[in-house]
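Workshop exercise sheet. Pairs work together: one partner reads the sequence aloud, the other fills in the structure field after running the prediction. Swap roles for the next sheet.
Pair: D.N. / O.F.
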Amino acid sequence: MLSIVKDVIKVNNEHNLIHRGNRIVVAVSGGADSVALLLILLNIRSHYTLNLAIAHLDHGLRENSTKEALYIARLAKTHNLPFYVCCENLLLYGKHAIEERARNARYAFLQKCAVQFKAHSIAVAHHANDQAETILFNIIRGSSVTGLGGMPYKRKIAADSSIQIIRPLLSLQKSQIVDYLATENQQWMEDESNADTRFTRNKIRRDLIPFLQSNFSAKVVPSLNKMAIRCQEIVDFMDQEANKYYDSAVASLCEKKHLDPMIQHTLNFRVFDEKLFAKIPTQIMPFLMKRAMRCMQINTSVNEHHYKMLSKLQEQKTGEIDLSSNVTIHKKPGKIYIYKRNDSSYMSEEFYSKIRTPWGWFVVEGGKENDSFDFFAQWMDKEKIQFPLRVRSWKREDVMKPLGAPGKKKIQKILKDIKLHEPFRDHVPVVVDHNERIVWLVGVCVSHHVRITEKTTEKTVVKCLLNS
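Structure field:
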């Protein structure tokens, strides 16, 4: 077994990247790094009983991109591996922030491939030189200790996903990778855009790192990687501390706490107790905000300017600040809300038995009513329901007569009465019948006209099976 393969196995044992029987999507661009990654994983495939697939995204940014895709297709065929490929012309949207958009498109595509392949992880080919570039890039931008930690060996691709991004080559230097490919007599495709020093990362790679190696230390790459490990240890500790404050400070949306998970499926939000939030140390706040953003699947970066705005907001009784075009922090007496604004309007198709919605599955069943109580399972008199049903967002003009109420009330008033904060009210759905009459304000109250009485001969239950 070659020493480079032994090094990868050693890294895997240290960082717990690959487990026996794993299904792994390998991101292959066609360059030396990703081709070497593929060969190494093929080399250890039998050792770990791995199932591998190749994924390649053609950004449409280079002249040779079609040739690269064909080359990778041949690799997949040679090794009898499933091959996922997608073409996306990012230039259609202009050249603004092209690097960031290309990265986001790539990871979104890789996540789709991983879900389709039922993968445990996605392997990417970042190595020690890439790590050094990332750290220097972050230093130039004035990054915090998180940026000095560079790229981790593994991370979740999304907060709500079990799929991991893994970097098995992160301890290897570029020269080792090139030597390995020469030993294996393996060709690769050169990415001509890597020579374009208009991109900051390329300039760091081609100009800054060689300058530091020649004039300061030949070991600048391993030195920066050692620093990254130390910084990541600090970040891990701060994340753990932030989690303690986060869990203790999280509050409920309103008096009916059971509504929180339902609204959270269509509106990304977090609510904090104002007094507990104020006790969070300044040094912890960036890590707590990072967790909140990660949980809400928001890519907005929070910078020093935002923290100053947040500090001023905490001194006020009420107010709000915008972190980006669609992320707001809102303060009301006793509560601090962080939420991502989005379009709340929704209407399902008509259904008789079941239908899938943004909140989860809605199911209509018969049977015998039991004594167990569930906010998201409402029994009704079947003969009083005009089928088919429909699930939709409530409208400003919507009214209903809640069970036992003396008269009709506006939906808006019902939600206000349970002290549900205004930005979240739009995300409680209603179930309506064929005549557009509301039968259930989900999780809150059933309509009086479909109530079960002594005269009821047939009962039915409408359930909302929330997304997990």
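Discussion prompt: The domain at 354-466 is CATH 3.50.40.10 (Phenylalanyl-tRNA Synthetase; Chain B, domain 3). What would you look at next?
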